[in-house]
Amino acid sequence: MNLNFSGTVNVFRLLVKPSLCLPHATVSTFNEIPSPFGRAFESSGKKVGIKAIVLDKDDCFAYPDTNEIYPAYTERFRQLQEEYPGRRLLIVSNTAGATSYDRDGRLAKELEIATGVSVLAHRVKKPGCGDEIMTYFKSHPEVGVTHPSQVAIVGDRLMTDMMLANMMGSWGLWIQDGVKPLNKKSLFSKLEQRLGPFLMARGFQAPNPQSPFE
Question: Phi first, then psi: what are they for 88, rounded to 5°?
């Protein structure tokens, strides 16, 4: 069983601040991620300098419970690797690399081999692993990340991926439809499909990340 204590605890933050689960930009599927990547956030009216991207795996670029790129997304995935080479692209999953689930790191290693992208080994699951993500980037100074506002989180879940982005002070890009058909998604995923538009229609907006120069 893949329990998420971090998700359970942090969801109560939404009672006080519902906007924490909202994205700064939304696309339907991984293939709709714009190129160059920064165009996704043009509507924010701010100059966005994204130096690194954190990718979710399941129902983002891979079919859930598989460790390979969904075939239809392979070309866009490789383009993103060219735009953000080396350690500027990082996979953070609540399955592969989550040490409470992937205890021997086998899933993370399989995913790294399949994608050519580093997979973060993290103790705390999303949305609570922001410190571990920043520690990773700061341990690789060649990436150039010195502040969370220079990082974008891409994923299909509002209460894990987008909440992670907002708790960190990063940018969040929501993959709204993902790979798995809606009628096969989990109850929580189906709930989020309604929750996001409901909140945004009532004027809630994701908090804008503040750069260290503002």
Answer: -75, -15
pLDDT one-digit tens code per residue, 148-207? 999 999 999 999 999 999 999 999 999 999 999 999 999 989 999 999 999 999 999 999
Cα 161 to Cα 53, 82, 111, 137, 212, distances in angstroms: 12, 23, 19, 18, 23
* Whether the model pTM is above 0.90: yes
Please report, for residues 62, 127, 129, the alpha-carbon distance to residue 109 in angstroms, rounded to integers and kept in the order given. 15, 22, 20
Assess contact for 133 and 54: CB atoms under 8 A.
yes
d(CA 172, CA 68): 23
On the 0-12 / 13-18 / 19+ scale of CB atoms within 10 A, 142 is exposed
> Which residue from 72, 75, 47 is spatially nearest to 62, judged by alpha carbons?
72
* Distance separating alpha carbons of residues 52 and 143, to the nearest angstrom: 7
**C-alpha–C-alpha distance, residues 212 and 150, integer Å:** 10
Q: Which residue has the tokens 């790191």?
A: 105
